Amino acid sequence: MIFYFSGTGNSLSVADKIAKVQGEQLVSIASELDRKCSVFEYGFGENDLLGFVFPVYAWGPPEIVLDFISKLKINGKPYIFSVATCGDDEGYTTRILQKEMNEKGLSVDSAFTVIMPNNYIIGFDVDDKEVETGKLQRARQRLDYINSVISKRQRGVFDLSRGKFSGVKSYIINPLFNRFARDTKSFYATDKCTGCGTCEKICPVHTIKVDGKPAWGKSCTQCLACIHRCPVGAIQYGKNTVKKGRYVNPDIAGIS
Fold it and tell me: DSSP letters along the chain, please?
């Protein structure tokens, strides 16, 4: 069983490729949380596969992922792995995940970082097409290696791209991001909006309601799916995103 969270499709693409090779069920964390359970209980046999695939948000796991893990009850002794996708480096993202898992009596056996195209256009722009193409090609090659490690149930493989100043990024910047940078007040739709409802449908925390134009509630993961996946490019975040590109992983269109 492979649990994933994804906004613009990078982590979904990775999770899907692993699930297909391993013959595993792919499960959306956002959809599971929609069930409003206080405990999410799952049973596993010895060395059955339990995976977590998610993007890095400001050098930490998305809060929605940590919230899900905090409610887990795992019966059995599965082989546990994680894959964090990011544009450049993950800092101590995996260490933060491991700490949350340890509190549930679980331990990550192996963990990986996969570099994918940038999509956090509030702070940066998307990669140019040449860089984007190169990252996607290298990611596909890296997944061959990751699947090999997982298939052999190798333990203690922590192949991570931490980058520089990991402590500052993950233990100072990340908490500030979660406290102050997930505000929805700057989201708006321009006159290009057709009221199609795509943003409302794909929002993982159901904070968007469309009545002519979209309106945002208070909850937000900062996945930016609403911005990137708007079919007419009508959604902006203040002035930060107006002149920047949009990105959706090219592989997710074929994932049912």
Answer: -EEE--SSSHHHHHHHHHHHHHT--EEEHHHHHTT--S-EEEE--TT-EEEEEEE-SSSS--HHHHHHHHTEEEES--EEEEEEEESS--TTHHHHHHHHHHHTT---SEEEEEE-----TTTSPPPPHHHHHHHHHHHHHHHHHHHHHHHTT--SEEE----SSHHHIIIIIHHHHHHHS---TTEEE-TT-----HHHHH-TT--EEEESEEEE-S------HHHHT-TT--EEETTTTTTS-----TTGGG--
